[in-house]
């Protein structure tokens, strides 16, 4: 599914102006290849509670911003202009969310497109716009990387070039890489077993076997993508509780979250 562009309704949510809590210096440039997770969110000087179990997560990667607040993954082009964050073409996946998570996604989208002021001080990033301030810490400091092995990884996004698609609602793809070299889980419809070897940042997944059910056109297509990536000697990268697998005929990427 092609990402949707955040339209006028979200732009109306943008928070004008900027503020500062004195936590650091106005950023001269954006961070590169770094992920930050929220440590506090406030509005009007008072804490703004997030939905239980969620956080604001921002990744800066070569002129692209990726954001997540508990449901859909948002992404767009980003630059720094006069100390303010400018996000263009903000779009996202279309996972069905609970009303409170959907509202939180819209709130974050509006905040990011509202050109908040940026401060960066060592491992702390502060974004301030209107009455809202979000303080974030470098994920390397805030949350150590999860281990590849013995972690249950849930596939939540598929990226094909610049196009991101969410997992079909009826699919539940998850993988566990056991210490003994076995992979077990589900490819989206069918249960999966395989053998793997991790060498450097690459996985060699062999002897992939699955059950033989059909779960409908969309789920079956998604499952074929998962299997293609796994069979394509994917590279892997772990950032906190996120795992990215890249491989297959078209070098697709699977993004997974530790459960």
Which keywords apply here?
stress response, elongated, mainly beta, Lipocalin, Hsp_HslJ-like, ten-stranded antiparallel beta sheet, about 45% strand, HslJ-like_sf, single chain, 4 helices, about 260 residues, nine-stranded antiparallel beta sheet, DUF306_Meta_HslJ, Heat shock protein HslJ
Task: Write structural notes for this entry.
The protein is mainly beta and 259 residues long. It is built from four helices and 19 strands. Strands 1, 2, 3, 4, 5, 6, 7, 8, 9 and 10 form a ten-stranded antiparallel sheet that branches. Strands 11, 12, 13, 14, 15, 16, 17, 18 and 19 form a nine-stranded antiparallel sheet that branches. The N terminus is likely disordered.
Distance N to C terminus: 25 Å
- Overall strand count: 19
The count of domains is: 2
Helix content: 10-25%
Can you give the mean pLDDT? 86
Q: Give the low-pLDDT segments.
A: 1-23
List the helices and strands and how they pair.
Blueprint: E1 4-5, H1 8-11, E2 34-43, E3 46-47, E4 57-61, E5 64-68, E6 73-81, E7 84-92, H2 99-112, E8 117-121, E9 124-129, E10 132-138, H3 139-142, E11 152-160, E12 163-166, E13 174-177, E14 182-186, E15 191-199, E16 202-210, H4 217-231, E17 235-239, E18 242-247, E19 252-258
Antiparallel strand pairs: 1-7, 2-3, 2-4, 2-10, 4-5, 5-6, 6-7, 8-9, 9-10, 11-12, 11-13, 11-19, 13-14, 14-15, 15-16, 17-18, 18-19
């Amino acid at each position: 599914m092609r990402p949707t562009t955040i339209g006028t309704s979200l732009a109306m949510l943008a928070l004008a102006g900027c503020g500062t809590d004195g936590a650091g210096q106005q950023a001269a440039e954006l961070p590169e290849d770094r992920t930050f997770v929220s440590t506090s969110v406030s509005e009007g000087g008072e804490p703004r509670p997030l939905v239980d179990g969620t956080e604001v997560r921002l990744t800066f990667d070569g002129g692209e911003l990726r954001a997540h607040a508990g449901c859909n993954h948002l992404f767009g082009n980003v630059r720094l202009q006069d100390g303010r964050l400018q996000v263009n073409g903000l779009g996202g996946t279309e996972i069905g969310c609970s009303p409170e998570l959907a509202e939180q996604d819209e709130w974050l989208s509006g905040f990011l497109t509202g050109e908040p002021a940026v401060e960066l001080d060592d491992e702390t990033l502060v974004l301030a716009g209107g009455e809202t301030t979000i303080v974030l810490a470098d994920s390397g400091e805030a949350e150590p990387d999860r281990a590849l092995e013995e972690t249950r990884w849930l596939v939540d996004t598929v990226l094909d070039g610049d196009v991101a698609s969410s997992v079909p609602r009826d699919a539940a793809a998850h993988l566990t890489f056991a210490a003994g070299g076995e992979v077990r889980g589900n490819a989206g419809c069918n249960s999966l077993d395989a053998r793997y070897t991790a060498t450097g940042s690459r996985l060699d997944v062999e002897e992939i076997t699955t059950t033989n059910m059909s779960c409908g056109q969309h789920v079956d297509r998604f499952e074929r993508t998962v299997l293609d990536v796994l069979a394509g000697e994917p590279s892997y990268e772990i950032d906190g509780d996120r795992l990215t697998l890249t491989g297959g005929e078209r070098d697709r990427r699977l993004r997974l979250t530790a459960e």
